[in-house]
Amino acid sequence: MTKNVQLPKFSVMSTNLLSTSAAAGFGGVVQEYLWNWENQQLRVVYETLGKGSPLLLLPSFSSVSTRLEVGELAKLLAPNFRVVALDWPGFGESSRPSLNYRPEIYQQFLEDFVKAVFNTPITAIAAGHAASYVLKLALKQATFSKIVLLAPTWRGPLPTMGANQQVAGFVRELVRSPILGQALYKLNTAPSLLSFMYRRHVFTDAAKITPSFIKKKWDTTQQPGARFASAAFVTGNLDAVHAQSDFWDLYSL
């Protein structure tokens, strides 16, 4: 008599050294973490710099999200901490498969990554949407000794603009579609639009928004498969909570 065994959606894999070249990131040791989700292997790139107490530096989700966005902060912290910064699955140099990106994936990934890379409680600095995931993990287990939140967010751009779940879901599936979705994504990540968004929402000093800076950001958005996780974030499908009161509850616990 045989017994059916259901395999878990995820399994933890190994970490491998990729590079020690400063050109590969912000000057640290670049490695990959191999992680399986629903029988699909994802390659997650992360970078380590400095020596001292362990610190996990998590960038925010966005169409231009990479660990390099927190690279300068990593270099400032490196004299006193062993800083680890990563590219989230679906962003940066990490794998960008056409998954149905949702909070369940990122919550499980974060838990497994921390277990695989660290063996003691760590300090976490989380930007943007990463805040909710860190707070939820902290409620589940004693992973973090300290938590710092940088400009925390809980709701994606389209829901913030007033779109309901039906409209947001329609837009998400439209962007995921093979031809029209690719065209819409390219229009929404055009260099001129990226420059406009940085001027309006990010920098007060427009001199920092140079052509080379925008070119690097645009290159990030044009990687194969880049639109899938980006569309999930913009349409609210990566919101770990769905009300401001729920976010404050996480923060106050």
TrEMBL record:
<dbReference type="InterPro" id="IPR029058">
    <property type="entry name" value="AB_hydrolase_fold"/>
</dbReference>
<feature type="domain" description="AB hydrolase-1">
    <location>
        <begin position="56"/>
        <end position="235"/>
    </location>
</feature>
<protein>
    <recommendedName>
        <fullName>AB hydrolase-1 domain-containing protein</fullName>
    </recommendedName>
</protein>
<dbReference type="InterPro" id="IPR000073">
    <property type="entry name" value="AB_hydrolase_1"/>
</dbReference>
<dbReference type="Pfam" id="PF12697">
    <property type="entry name" value="Abhydrolase_6"/>
</dbReference>
